[in-house]
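Worked example

This section walks through a single chain of length 422. The input is the sequence exactly as stored; nothing has been trimmed or padded.
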Amino acid sequence: MFTGRGKQLSIFIGETDHYGHQSLHMAIVEMLRRQGCGGATVTRGIAGFGASSLIHTASILRLSMDLPVVITVVDRPERIDRLIEPLRRMAPHALITVQNVEIVQSSAPLKEGLPDVKVAEAMRTEVATVGPDASLASVVELLRDKDFTAVPVIDAQRRVIGMVSDSDLLTRGGMNVTLSLQRAADPDFIDRLKKSLNDQNRKVSEVMTRDVVTVGPDEVIGRAARLMVEKRLKRLPVVDSEGVLVGILGRLDILKTIAAVNVSEWHPEAPANREAATVGDVMNRDVPNVGESASVEDVLELLVSSAHKRVVVVDGRRHVVGIIADSDLIARVSRESRPGLIEALVARAPIGEARKHLRKLRARSAQELMTRDVVTVREIMPVAAALALSAEKGIKRFPVVNAAGELVGIVGRTEMLRALLG
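Given that input, the structure is written out below as tokens.
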């Protein structure tokens, strides 16, 4: 992890408190793991009372009573601060405290490769699924507000018989727009797509991928990560020996596990580990970029021609001042302009007809379109530290800069994970 100033978070709840169909303390622990925390401890009290003034005790005659439970987390201050609001929503009646602490020793940092952690420790046990007879419109509805774009298809015994993703819907389901662009459009756009799919009356079984790559809960996450890289997948269903679904492992879960096993904070002045891969070793130097005064047409041209789906905005010294993703462009145009722009972005063809839609944009330059406060990484940063930062910030691709702050490349999770696997 790290040493120095940290924060200790304590959550006081009751043993019988629930969150949905799960015990509250386990739901909180799983949330903390997904958020990349270095660890959490659940302590069960022997006696106590809370706001109700009822005394709860573990004496032999009252073993079934609601005993007090305390969940304790020690981590970086910024990570603890981000956890407060999610915890308030999950446990509105809990007592939550935070105090500053000095961390004098922690577990050893991850040097290279992946931690020796089993899939069962990193996977999510609550899994969104569909059946083979579900409509394609129901899949779109299921995925519309999620942070993933594929779900397992299961039979009546919860055995995995397929996967259905936005790629399946694009190639075989008649959907002509990726889910990420749909989300950037507007609810009416998705509703029209659902109506079109409903009119076709097609089922999941017609478009799903049947050759499913799965992993067992007792496998180490290194093997799961290698499968993801080799098969170009972002999610793996976790199944038991009978093929029954027991969880789901996403690429982000692996990255958060890397962060959770305490990759130490990296500093540019720290001595370099010559054996560890760096961002500069794996970055793509051909990065689409424009100046702040570049026209919207110039930005669109780069977006339709680049596989990165984003354009970096630089100033006169080539310092990164902003970034523009394809979804940013769609979100900033009027509703009547979106279909034309979406068509150009999906087809990745010369923009031609789409130019007339751009005239309706209020923004006339890259500076007016861009998202500011861009997180960058140094080219000498170790890949493991960059992946931990990716999980921490929820960022899929980073602009890469040199010691002078100049843009020199762009790097994504896939190439970094591949380098970490060796």
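What to look for: The domain at 4-103 is CATH 3.30.70.120 (Alpha-Beta Plaits).
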